[in-house]
Design goal:
The chain is mainly alpha-helical and about 375 residues long. About 50% of the residues lie in helices and about 10% in strands. The mean pLDDT is about 85.
Length: about 375
């Protein structure tokens, strides 16, 4: 390790040697420090990171966390996590030493977050606040599990916000019919919402669809990818979960509609995306169609809820519905339990009849 002054630029530089995880000695150089103190501080941070010394700053540990975790999650998931770390954690905790951050510091940070507002000037939602805390806690858990941090101060401080509400909006078939008629003037909008409502697929799954995913002879739709727009790039990723890889049986009328739609697209190839629109476009069309049709505005994702509620109303089981929409059946049961026909009254009646029959039999024997 050495710190030198560059007389030509009148700045300081650091040459730092370290042994990597394979036992190979490596050297890194950092130039451009205004003062020797800054150069030495950077050198200490590098030593702390390479020796897993938790006197390193939170910001330095974020670099370690990034190296450990970035390639283990989907790109869109990491994009969200990175944005939160950069804008919500580092500005407040970045310069603090990892082993000096206490529960009281997390509480102070929580108070700042609970009093903050988004770009529209609205307070952060309880769901978002909980997400922020969970992400921060995950970082400290990583430090506890792999780098010897004694305890997780975020866990000790306790959570903020709350879980996503189980309350959900959905359209009846009549409401969707009014909406679909209102957007029929734009074919790409009409057919996109037809797929969302009648197949219960996710936005990303819709936007990733290609002609190769349709088997019109057997009325099948294959879901095996998702579309994301990240960092100015259009990317195709795997679906949200393993269960999301699925094949959906399409109703006959929808197959005919999609054949018509394909015929409208000039030069369409097997692996071309058929809906070359954005999520913002879909949200704008949801606004327009809802207002024009005079139906309540729901989220795009609520069309998935609408599809599931329709299947429940038609009498299908949680297992059958889960296979169609790419969920675990237990999640269908938990999230949509209030929509399934209640069997409680029937159970009570039968128990009552059983008990009455038992008493009758006892009376006959006594007589």
């Amino acid at each position: 390790m050495s710190v030198h002054k560059d007389k030509k630029t009148n700045t300081w530089r650091v040459c730092y040697r370290y042994t990597d995880w394979q036992g190979i000695v490596r050297q890194t150089t950092k130039r451009g420090f205004s003062t020797k103190r800054e150069a030495l501080a950077w050198e200490r941070e590098q030593k702390g990171k390479n020796e897993s010394d938790l006197t390193m700053t939170f910001e330095s540990f974020i670099e370690i966390y990034t190296t450990d975790m970035k390639n283990r999650v989907k790109e869109n998931t990491w994009h969200t996590k990175e944005h939160i770390m950069r804008t919500k954690f580092i500005p407040y905790l970045g310069k603090r030493k990892m082993n000096e951050i206490k529960a009281k510091d997390i509480i102070a940070w929580q108070n700042v977050m609970m009093n903050s507002t988004d770009k529209r000037g609205k307070p952060y939602s309880p769901v978002y606040l909980k997400t922020l805390h969970n992400q921060l806690s995950a970082i400290f858990n990583h430090a506890v599990r792999y780098y010897g941090l004694k305890e997780n101060p975020a866990a000790k401080a306790g959570n903020m916000g709350k879980e996503k509400s189980r309350e959900m909006l959905f359209w009846t078939q009549e409401e969707y019919k009014k909406f679909s008629e209102a957007i029929m003037d734009k074919p790409i909008s009409y057919y996109a919402f037809e797929m969302l409502y009648w197949c219960g697929i996710r936005e990303g799954e819709l936007l990733a669809l290609t002609p190769a995913d349709f088997d019109f002879e057997r009325n099948l739709l294959r879901i095996n990818k998702s579309f994301q727009h990240l960092g100015g790039r259009d990317i195709i990723t795997e679906p949200k979960t393993v269960k999301s890889n699925r094949t959906i049986k399409m109703p006959e009328f929808l197959c005919e509609e999609m054949k018509d739609y394909f015929s409208m697209i000039y030069g369409l190839k097997e692996n071309d995306r058929i809906f070359t629109i954005t999520k913002n476009y879909l949200h704008h069309e949801m606004d327009r169609g809802s207002k024009s049709a005079g139906v309540k505005r729901i989220r795009i994702h609520d069309l998935r809820h609408s599809h599931i509620s329709l299947l429940i109303e038609m009498g299908y089981s949680a297992v059958a519905i889960a296979d169609r929409v790419g969920h675990e059946s237990i999640n269908i049961t938990y999230n949509y339990a209030h929509l399934f026909p209640s069997t409680q009254n029937d159970m009570a009646d039968k128990l009552d009849q059983f008990r009455k029959g038992e008493k009758t039999n006892v009376s006959k024997k006594c007589g």
